[in-house]
Amino acid sequence: MTLLCRLKKYADHLIIGTALIGIGIYLIAHDHYFQWPPMATPLANDDLFGGLYLICGLAIAWWVMSKHHSPHLNSVLLTIATLLMAFLSVYQFLNFIFAGSDYMPWISNLALTAMIFTTADRSDSSEQ
What we know:
Layout: H1 3-9, H2 11-29, H3 41-44, H4 47-65, H5 71-98, H6 106-122
């Protein structure tokens, strides 16, 4: 299968990977993004937090472009992506409610979480 065919076949995976890469870069670049709760903000605003999204997004993009598509790795990556995005959505919502943060895109991130969950549900676990 050519690279173009893989990109077409796994376009939803590529969108998810690209979104996670973008979110990771954004979180790494904004060191004062989260404001609540005060004792957790140093950890939440750490570059490692954004790095998790970046690494997961790069891993999903690599999976799309590789010639071997392990169903197990696909399940693991999509599960990690779902957990990361669900955590981010809830944490952004809590920052929006308790800190009154103006820009917290928790709704769009919740929609992306649903997209990842749907993609994982549609993925064939026996596909080679």
